[in-house]
Amino acid sequence: MPSIVYRGVGPRIAYERRIAGLTQADLARAAGTSLGTIRKIERGERGVSDATLGAIADALDIDPTRLLPDRERPEDRMHVAMPGLAAVLASYEEPDDAPCRALPALREAVAATVGLRLGAQYSRIARTVPDLLAELCRALSTAPSADRPAVARLLADACRAADAVAFKHGAKDLSARLLDLMRWAGAQAVDPVVDATVAYVRAELHFSARTHGVGLRAIERALDRAPRTDAAEALAARGALHMRAAVLAGRASDSAAADIHLDDARGLGDRVPEGVYRGTAFGPDSVRTHEVSVAVSLGDDHLGRALSLAREWKPPATLPAERRSGFYIELGRAQLWSGRADAAFESLKVARRIAPQHAREHRWVREDAATLRRLKRADAESLTNFAEWCHA
Question: What's the half-sphere exposure (Cβ side, CA atoms, 13 Å) at 282?
């Protein structure tokens, strides 16, 4: 896959290195590059390839986008990944003949990718997911029958991660094709929990198309098919579907259905500890974040519920970054609509600190930042900088 070369990142790398308490030699060793390379990069004498930037970011334990100049867009990585993803989508039923790692190694690679998705580190996913998808398709085509369901589950999980990158960066056609691949893999997993997860993720098509009523009916059909056991993964799968149904109902202005699904989600959330189940966060805290989302979706008289909940509760740091960032984006919209512009801007900045890529690519962040900029023309430079950062 071709590599992007970034320029102007040297001062940011030097700053983050000093914050981390590392010398240039320390950073070179941790990133697997030479001391001379680090020195030239920090002095601005050479650009940084996509791979080297990722290695430096990993060594500093930060998201790569924190090192990019404001003019560089993280979706550049998505554009580089697109040919590889398109190749996978064109040939997944007849993949190329090439070596594949053993099932334990594939599990480890997919688990790492799922972790990046939950942490909203989309640029790092884009760097590796095309090759991972291609390898999983090869593995599925050659796996013995006993291993096929397990490989199919891994392929579905990897498709979800790739879709997160495509969907967040506005590549809606590519996202829809990845969801079709996820559904194809899910059908071979022979697992009702995977089926429920596929239905949960596919609902984003209805958010994008704003066919919320249709999406609500699709989720309710998925709930009818969902496993009814008391196993934690089955309870979490049903609970996640109820959360998604509640938000779809809110967007469809069906407050009665939203309340019913939220109540069902709360009941299921009380039966399992907060955690990540098959790649989806679920539990009491996740349900609370969705209460805010539903209130914002319903708008008007319901906004007070979102503001009241936020005064009483904040998402804990143990929740995935993408979900915590989403909470503050939703809260910021409620505050903006309630006439609390300063509080709204603070919430958007919190969302940015938690998950910068998620916030930067979120449509509501751009819309609300643009509105704040119009409302507060004489505001501090930070508001203008923020609006330019997210390309409002």
Answer: 29
CATH number of 1-72: 1.10.260.40
Distances (CA, A) of 76 to 56, 114, 121, 179: 18, 21, 14, 22
- Cβ neighbors of 218 (< 8 A, separation 6 or more) are 199, 202, 203, 206
Question: How high is the mean pLDDT of the chain?
Answer: 91
- pLDDT tens sequence across 91-143: 999 998 899 999 999 999 999 999 999 999 888 898 899 999 999 999 999 99
Please say whether the dihedral angle defined by the alpha carbons of residues 347, 348, 351 and 353, taken in this order, is positive or negative: negative
Give the pLDDT confidence score for residue 69 in this predicted structure: 66
**Per-residue confidence band for 4, with pLDDT thresholds at 50, 70 and 90:** low
Domain locations in the chain?
Answer: 1-72, 74-186, 191-308, 314-392
